[in-house]
Design goal:
By secondary structure, this protein is an all-alpha fold. It has one domain: Up-down Bundle (Rhopdopsin 7-helix transmembrane proteins). Helix content is 81%, strand content 0%. It contains ten helices and no strands. Helix 3 runs antiparallel to helix 5 and helix 3 runs antiparallel to helix 8.
Length: 248
């Protein structure tokens, strides 16, 4: 079904998202050698941006899936056909790849000293750009533009979908019907809240305060903890998965 198709892609994106930072972080802890090459840093920036933005797009597509399921249930299988689902994922993947490529190329044009220290546990693009010797004005503008397009736009789509979902649920007469309709969205709402609250919290706190250690600690929430929790949230609230576990 479309829901499982999007869930599979979200799980894949989460695995890749954590794989850009966690292995290197564990190696640093084990060896106490916190050095990363310039090439390794640029590579990490590219894949981190790629899977972070793809996560945001997938959450918006899942919100649209819930909107169609609740507001247009009789047309669900016609509207959410395999071709449309595949096209949505493909377009979001291409847009994420183009964004990460463009931002990485813009970082490459900056000049750095031979040895710099990043006040973070991975090559976070904001921290890297701040350490540049050349003017990062165009990089800052590009990051702000990408934030609006790749974070605010999916969030606006999610908000619109849920405004329609809430109005549709309120129109249901029975309490059981309302509960059933809302329960299909509970897992997705929780995942969206975790993703956006932690990521926006980190960037807002870094804009307000210059405490890089606090920003790095907060970043662990949305780069490590949140993707890990997604699997548990969807597993514990999914009847099919719970039924399969009982059978095993």
């Amino acid at each position: 079904t479309p829901m499982y198709f999007f869930l599979a892609n979200l799980s894949f994106a989460d695995i890749c998202f954590t794989s850009t930072t966690v292995p290197n972080m564990l190696q640093d802890i084990h060896t106490q050698n916190k050095v990363i090459t310039y090439e390794g840093c640029i590579t990490q920036i590219y894949f981190y941006l790629l899977f972070a933005s793809w996560d945001a797009f997938l959450l918006a597509e899942m919100a649209y899936d819930r909107f169609v399921a609740i507001c247009h249930p009789l047309h669900y299988m016609v509207l959410m056909n395999p071709r449309l689902c595949g096209l949505l994922v493909l377009v979001s993947w291409i847009m994420s790849a183009l964004n990460s490529l463009l931002q990485t190329l813009m970082v490459l044009r900056l000049t750095f000293c031979r040895e710099v220290e990043i006040s973070h546990f991975f090559c976070e693009i904001n921290q890297v750009v701040r350490l540049a010797c050349s003017d990062p004005f165009f990089n800052d503008m590009m990051m702000y533009f990408a934030t609006v397009v790749l974070a605010a736009a999916p969030l606006a789509g999610i908000s619109y979908s849920y405004s329609k979902i809430v109005s549709s649920i309120l129109g249901i007469s029975s309490a059981q019907g309302k509960y059933k309709a809302f329960s299909t969205c509970a897992s997705h709402l929780l995942v969206v809240s975790l993703f956006y609250c932690t990521s926006l919290g980190v960037y807002l706190s870094s804009a307000v305060t210059q405490n890089s250690h606090a920003s790095a600690v907060a970043s662990v929430m949305y780069t490590v903890v949140t993707p890990m929790l997604n699997s548990f949230i969807y597993s514990l609230r999914n009847r099919d998965i719970k039924g399969a576990l009982k059978r095993i």
